[in-house]
Design a protein that fits this description.
2 domains; 4-stranded parallel β-sheet; 12 helices; binds norvaline; globular; single chain; alpha/beta; binds phosphoric acid mono(formamide)ester; Rossmann fold; 5-stranded parallel β-sheet
């Protein structure tokens, strides 16, 4: 564990105008919909401040412990949570569950009742979303969804942070997602709705987002004044978009469907021709990892409109804000 230098007291505090006046202390983040618009806006404001002033938060989570149980592979999520926690003064413990699903050796409730005695926050990457909601139910410390088959909230929060950096306030922004309407798409829809951005989702038939998540996003959108639209035509989805987002066609856990899915998703490939229908100032987004020249061409992924590595960087800053807020340090640091 890093040691706290004596000079820490002299470090600059975050500017009050960017410090959110919302508290998420002790809360879980299983879904983006666990947040209100005000809470999400507060988290994004803190994320921007953490990115601009990392030294001000260097010891904000001094001696805090985070455990990460991952049933699926990860590069970005694992490393950005670890780097976030380490650079806030805390420690991250990683437990590889790829060979033994959580709950197999002992019950989720018993895992929770052990782990909460040692650590201050639990981060889970799972297949079943219920593994995360059950752990949240049993654990007395915050539980964070680091991707399930249903949602990827940390990704979506970082992605809308990236959009705010480029475009400012996103009310009325035209966000488009094309591809598989699953976990990443679900969290993006909910985040767009909370922030008052319009969200168009273009998927093949039978790969639309889940009806209950669409209904949830639309209920939020009714309040924030945005529209959630579902289409099957990729050109219609992208036309006039300010941001075009895609994800792999075959998510983790669905590998056995890869051959069947490839031709179904081919018309949804984000290439230069499809991008030409978007606004000239539109950005291209992807959560990564990308399957190059499958769901997106090299020309788009590596092209001038791509912000994919800004998204990857912002995973760390956004997760710092999330950790600070769930651990009760979001409004007062050091
Ligand atoms: N985008 C994302 O979650 O990447 P990893 O699967 O590498 O964590
Ligand atoms: N939809 C993808 C996202 C990976 C970050 C998956 O679930 O595999």
């Amino acid at each position: 564990m890093a040691t706290k230098p004596a000079a820490v007291q002299e470090l600059e505090s975050p500017s009050p105008e960017t410090t959110p006046d919302v508290s998420l202390a002790g809360r879980d983040l299983c879904s983006v919909a666990d947040l209100t618009t005000t809470e999400l806006a507060g988290m994004l404001a803190l994320a921007h401040d953490v990115k601009a002033n990392p030294a001000a938060y260097r010891w904000a989570l001094d001696a805090k412990q985070m455990v990460m149980f991952f049933e699926k592979a990860s590069l970005r999520t694992r490393l950005t949570f670890q780097t976030a926690m380490n650079t806030l003064g805390g420690s991250a413990l990683f437990v590889d569950q790829t060979q033994s699903p959580l709950g197999e050796r002992e019950s989720l409730a018993d895992i929770a009742r052990n782990v909460e005695r040692w650590v201050q926050i639990i981060v889970l990457r799972t297949y079943a979303h219920e593994t995360i909601t059950e752990m949240a139910q049993y654990a007395s410390v915050p539980v964070v969804n680091a991707l399930s088959d249903l949602e990827h909230p940390c990704q979506a929060i970082a992605d809308f942070m990236t959009l705010e950096e480029r475009f400012g306030n996103l009310r009325g922004f035209n966000f488009t997602y094309v591809g598989d309407g699953n976990n990443v798409c679900h969290s993006l829809m909910l985040t767009a709705a909370l922030l008052g951005a319009h969200c168009t989702v273009g998927t093949p038939k039978n790969y639309a987002p889940k009806a209950d998540v669409v209904a949830q996003a639309r209920a939020i959108a009714n309040v924030t004044g945005s529209n959630i639209m579902l289409v099957n035509d990729p050109v219609a989805a992208v036309t006039g978009a300010d941001a075009v987002y895609t994800d792999i066609c075959t998510s983790m856990g669905f590998e056995h469907e890869a051959t069947k899915r490839a031709p179904i998703f081919k018309p949804y490939q984000v290439n230069e021709a499809l991008m030409s229908n978007a606004a000239p100032s539109a950005v291209f987004m992807h959560c990564l990892p990308a399957h190059r020249n499958a769901e997106v061409t090299d020309a788009v992924l590596d092209g001038p409109q791509s912000v994919v590595f800004d998204q990857a960087e912002n995973r760390m800053h956004a997760q710092k804000a999330l950790l600070l807020m769930l651990l009760g340090k979001g409004t007062k640091c050091l």
